[in-house]
């Protein structure tokens, strides 16, 4: 079974940018090839230039390449079936939101802004031929213990990033999820009011 023979483009109800309709979140990552450092840098640069409230840029990332102790620590913090596949990704990125500024003032929009940064990272990576899968199933207290993490930075998620792999390396259950049709609720259900 190969994802290259499976149509993964979203069937949108109205036209969107091709890169957006083509972007998807695989679980099958190529487990041997190192990350292309230029493409990784571009993805992180896209995140850096995403919008944020008052330009506070309340996101931080810990970037861990496969084969390093840091990658193993992030992989060990994953929960559930994420542990079955995510460690194959060339890079695991722990994502943090700055919940308060240096003076202790709250930043209630930090998680929203982090989400925008990760979305920019995801689209840039896909544009460059890499794939991203975001995970919320993670032991956040273990991520908070990673080097360089200050108390004001709340661990939110982990991002697997790398080249697309062979789905046959996954368990049967995950293979089925890998090739299942992409679905979303309708636009009418998403927009609850419009005037």
TrEMBL record:
The keyword Oxidoreductase applies. Keywords: Oxidoreductase. CDD domains: TdsD-like (cd02138). InterPro entries: Nitroreductase (IPR029479), Nitroreductase-like (IPR000415). Residues 21-81 form the Nitroreductase domain. The keyword Oxidoreductase applies. PANTHER family: NAD(P)H NITROREDUCTASE YDGI-RELATED (PTHR43673), NADH DEHYDROGENASE_NAD(P)H NITROREDUCTASE XCC3605-RELATED (PTHR43673:SF10). Belongs to the nitroreductase family. This is Nitroreductase. It comes from Microbacterium murale.
């Amino acid at each position: 079974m190969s994802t290259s023979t499976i149509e993964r483009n979203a069937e949108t109800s109205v036209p969107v940018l091709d890169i957006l309709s083509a972007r998807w979140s695989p679980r099958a990552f190529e487990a041997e090839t190192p990350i292309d450092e230029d493409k990784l840098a571009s993805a992180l640069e896209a995140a850096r230039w995403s919008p944020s409230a008052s330009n506070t840029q309340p996101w931080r990332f810990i970037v861990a390449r496969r084969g390093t102790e840091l990658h193993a620590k992030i992989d060990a913090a994953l929960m559930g079936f994420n542990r079955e596949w995510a460690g194959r990704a060339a890079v695991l990125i722990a994502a943090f939101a700055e919940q308060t500024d240096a003076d202790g003032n709250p930043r209630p929009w930090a998680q929203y802004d982090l989400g925008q940064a990760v979305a920019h990272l995801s689209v840039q990576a896909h544009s460059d031929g890499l794939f991203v899968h975001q995970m919320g199933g993670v032991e956040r207290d273990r991520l908070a213990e990673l080097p360089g993490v200050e108390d004001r930075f709340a661990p939110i998620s982990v991002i697997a990033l790398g080249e697309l792999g062979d789905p046959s390396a996954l368990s049967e259950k995950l293979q089925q999820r890998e090739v299942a049709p992409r679905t979303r609720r309708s636009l009418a259900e998403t927009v609850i009011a419009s005037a």
